[in-house]
Amino acid sequence: METTIFHIDVNSAYLSWTALERGANEETPDLRVIPSIVGGDIEKRHGVVLAKSGPAKKYGIRTGEPVVNAFRKCPSLVMVPPDHTLYARRSGELMTYLSDICPDIEQVSVDECYMNFTPIAGNYKTPVSGADTIREEIYKTFGFTVNIGVSNRKVLAKMASDFRKPNLTHTLFSWEIEKKMWPLPVSALYMCGKSSVETLRKLEILTIRDLALADPMILEAHLKSHGRLLWQYANGIDPSTVVSQPVKAKGIGNSITLPKDAVTADEARTALLSLSESVAYRLRAAGQRAMMESLEIKYADFQTVSHQTTFISPVDHDRIIYETACKLFEETWNQAPIRLLGIRTARLCPVSDPVQLSLFDLEQPKLSEKQHKLDEAIDTIRKRFGEHSVIRGSLLGRKEEFKKH
To answer: What is the pLDDT of residue 376?
Structure first.
């Protein structure tokens, strides 16, 4: 039996969740039925549209554009500030609910996840009827809608969930890509950002079909490894599986909203170094080590991607976390401007737990006793005088530029 994968995506999550909270507090009108947006302060960098209502979309308002532009398009527009505490709570409720239906869940952002539907397929007549049932029950239970993409490949499930919205189920199995996906412009392909679209346009590659039939060697010459990845996605090639994680599993991480978009690898690495130090310090302070590390990239157009890896043995040191983050970055970045970077560690285990070594541990960097003692000395200073009391020379004067959350 071939694997069936769902990609479940909340429709306009921030606005829907905000509207429901306002309704619970008897605040009117309902943001979903009027031109409205969730956005930030016009005076600050976060003064962009984070989410929009259906009526606002009719005015041509787009997610990611400055709120000042949105108000030019619709002077009567209603704007409310984001509430990330609310979003985290709503997200947790949804993921807990879905994990009760099927524990094989991989959450990839606050409002979307993959589900390996295969183990529970016998409970439903067809995958589509199963998706419809789950989608309808989510609306009855929580009051907001989701789109569900159904496929035998993760990337195709993701693509399917982005088809016509809201509150719909779409399929995009590997045998449907020529009919449903190939006619679309390359800009519709997952992971194909603006800079990649422009490069492909110069190569006269305008549709996903053009991309799928192109020579991957030529794509690599112009877009490096990302060109090969786009070619694979255009052909429905994606060997990755749903990496299930307990919804309530503990992890330690941090993210940085950059003061200005990072456009070079060096700028990104500087931010990753700061994040790595912070995450490693917090791991050691909690007496934990990590067996998994993930990297999150949010681009200037608010598209978010993530990539993760596992360690041979548990780690808690800055250098290993940093070098791993850089490797994940090199494998993920599509050359588009970066707005946010995040590092998260998971599958934690106490430092006191015994570590079983193997010959494969030779592949993982080793730390000298001197490095461990240096970590302990720096941690002691930071515990007494604050997390940023000791910083690298390369970060001097830059720590306060970053807004962490």
So the answer is: 64
